[in-house]
Each structure stands twice: as structure tokens, then as C-alpha cells.
Amino acid sequence: MDDRQFRTAMGKFATGVTVIATDVEGDVHGMTANAFMSVSLSPKLVVISIGENARILEKIKQSNSFSVNILAADQQELSMIFAGQIKEHREVVFDRLDGKPVLAGAVAQIACEVSAEHVEGDHTLFIGKVTDIHLEDAEPLIFYSGRYRALTEEKTLV
What we know:
This protein is mainly beta and 158 residues long. Helices cover 15% and strands 46% of the residues. It has one domain (16-144): Electron Transport, Fmn-binding Protein, Chain A (Pnp Oxidase, Chain A, Roll), CATH 2.30.110.10. β4 and β5 form a beta hairpin.
């Protein structure tokens, strides 16, 4: 199999869209990612996967902390900004949750301290100990097969 076929196959898994953020000496850095999952309920742990060429990789290592912002359906522009798809500068305002930078309006804001990191292939997996969570009642932004999507209500037969 070639790289393109592998990428296409991985794109067939529908995911939410997150922005990973970290703060180094007052400067906030963020990146759009869909490589995120929960790991453990006790203790509360999550994992993010960051590519070796991502600028945020060294920033997370420096700060030893990060946030995961699960984007709402109306936050596609934020996803595109942090994915580098929108080139012109846009000001993004961050709130704080347990001292970590978070995006207002996200379905979930998850503040984490790095508890472990593992290099696997061309990515580093950061295990984050969850220190705080904030939830909003909103629909999530979905990504599937290279396109943004939205949830639709399932119709039930009576």
C-alpha cells in the first residue's frame, strides 16, 4: 500500500475536530488535530498525537501542559486557522481553564498536564492527566473523508 491509500483509509474514520493549545512564556500556540482519544477514567487520562514536524511539538515539551478543545459545529473557521488553511492573520482570543489556554464556545475544553510521552513512528504521543474540564451544550464539528461535516438527527420509526 502507498501513503495516499493509507491516508485515504484513515480518513474513512469520522472524527471530531480539536484544537490542541499550549502556552510557553505567555505565547499561546495551537494546532488543529483529530488524533485524540480518552485513555483512562481512573486516573483521568487522554492522549494526543503530534507529528515530528509540527511546530507545537517542542512547545508542549517546554510547557509540559496542553488543552484539548473539541470544536463546535460553528467553529470550522477556527479549525481552518489552526490547520494553516487560512493564511491571513486572524486574531484568536483564548480563555483560561486551570491556567491552560482554551477556546470559548468549544463543545469541551480539557486542561491537561503531560504525564508521559512516547515516540512512535513519525509522531509523539502525549499522555495528558486531565486537571479540569468545561462543557458546552452544542453540536460538534465532524471531519470525514477530507471534509467537514455535521451531525444529523436520526429518525426513529414508531
